[in-house]
Amino acid sequence: MGDGTAVRLEPHEIALLGDGPRAAVTVAVVDLYLRGLVVADRPGTMRAGVADAVSAERPPSPLAQEVHACLHEPAGLRTLVKDPGVRLAVALMRIPLAEAGLLRYPLLGPTRGARRHVRELRQRHPLPAGRRGLTDHDRLLAVALHGEAAVRLLVPRFALRAGLIRRAEVGGKGLLKHSPRGTGGGGGGYFSCGGGGGGD
Questions:
Q1: Claim: this prediction has a pTM higher than 0.85
Q2: Rg (CA), the chain
Q3: Who has the most CB within 10 Å: 37, 42, 134, 190?
Q4: What is the top-level taxon of the source organism (predicted)?
């Protein structure tokens, strides 16, 4: 497989190669939100919505399924990234990427070919000018390639309320004094997702 660039990558895999686990989890969260499976909750947190994951046309990725299982109670992005079940899902994602030559052993950082491939994808798929006419896959690919800029453009209200972006980035530094505490997306230790003995 050489440098692995012939492999067809999913958006959460592209995000992992480009910007690491936090970016991959962000793509998984946006995927769940677009499916109606996640909603914003208390400031800086999100929780599982009432929609049924089984009814989706295409099942969410294993990473998104693990994130969804973790959100039976409100959590922020930082809590999700640190959750043992989510970390395991990210580790399992890395195995086929390493086998395809996109991650190098032993530290599993992206190879030169993988970094080049992500750069080429960013050039071929620039940040969209707006939300109209985009499929959900287009939105996820934009989030995978362009990170917070795409999140701000494509799901701004959810991203702000759920803590995927900081309020200061949207409203300017003057809002920091007047913002409620705990809006930075950490979830402030409400709970540990893996602590309840395995969600559904």
A1: no
A2: 17
A3: 37
A4: Bacteria
